[in-house]
Amino acid sequence: MASAGSPSVAVGVTRPVDLRSDTVTKPTAAMRRAMAEAEVGDDVYVEDPTVNALEAEVAALFGHEAALFVPSGTMGNQICLRLLAEPGQEILCDSDAHIVTYEMGAAAALFGLGTRTVLGARGRFELDAYVPQVRPPDWHTVRTAVIAVENTHNRGGGSVQPIEELKALRAHADEADLSLHCDGARIWNAHVATGTGLAEYGAVFDTLSVCLSKGLGAPVGSVIVSSSDRIAAARILRKRLGGGMRQAGILAAAGRHALHHHIERLADDHARARTLAAALPGVVVNDPETNIVVLELDGDAHALAAAARDDGVLVSVVSPTRIRLVTHLDVDDDGADRAAGVLSGLLD
Ligand code: TLP
Description:
Layout (H helix, E strand, L loop, with lengths): L16 E2 L10 H8 L12 H13 L4 E5 L2 H12 L5 E5 L3 H4 L4 H6 L2 E5 L8 H4 L13 E7 L12 H14 L2 E6 L2 H8 L3 H7 L2 E5 L10 E5 L1 H13 L8 H13 L4 H14 L12 E5 L4 H10 L2 E2 L1 E4 L2 E5 L6 H15 L1
Parallel strand pairs: 1-10, 3-4, 3-5, 5-6, 6-7
Antiparallel strand pairs: 2-8, 7-8, 9-12, 11-12
Helix pairs in contact: 1-11, 2-11, 3-10, 12-14
The chain binds ligand TLP.
Ligand TLP binds next to helix 3.
């Protein structure tokens, strides 16, 4: 029996093209082999060799001292925010950022952190829009402790944050005594789309949370990177949140496999997003820079999603009139063409 939310497509009919998210990928056969063969230990004792290797590798990629494997991007973001801000302080971020849209108010609910938002065009970070909003330390107003930037920006349609603007932000943060966090769930897509080095992004931020379970195709896991001192504190926060995992090397092996085999191929996902956008010219909001296409409809997004599902294409509804399409490891050229045909037919 189909579980709630699963595709209502009859068995025996062509496999649906699932464009709801790049989180829906299944581990490849080679990834599963790497998982099965992983050397493991108890990671709460810091004794899992595969987790330790993953952490060292990701820290090095971003040019930071240390890293910590965490179960999800949400936990990664929230631990980082708490590392950089004290209860009663605030985080400044885009009004459509994942941390204020989809993380269930965690910064406030768990850590007493406020969030204040800035409107950006498709989530694009612009220093000039943020600087006037920063409240410096004083006895009378809430202190802005952190600016958090999402790269790529999910609800912005996978938009890439310009590296020059980020470097200007770093210079400002040093002068203004602000800390910087990057929600880098899809930073790999930004790296592949622009050629900007991961270490170049890493040099901008005090903490980054990067996901292995989005475009990279691992089933679970994110990694936070920062200084050794902060990562030691992060280990305690992770345990407090119930995120200390035991023989987690099985999951870390999937992440390592993804790092070694699934970064460069993101360019294919980006090309397929462009194919989809080109087929739907009247409704596409963004000229896709990476793997996300956003559609703005005249009509009801839920109705379109239901009709597309009946035709074997799964999409996500991100507002009453907006649809999101995300390409990934489990969508090939044929799938992208099929989805483009179905959606353009329904929108005609
Ligand atoms: N994004 C998911 C949903 O939560 C919306 C998706 O389908 O895109 N940062 C960004 C930018 C994200 O897009 C996501 C997940 C996360 C953080 C959180 O990652 P998880 O789901 O691992 O907690």
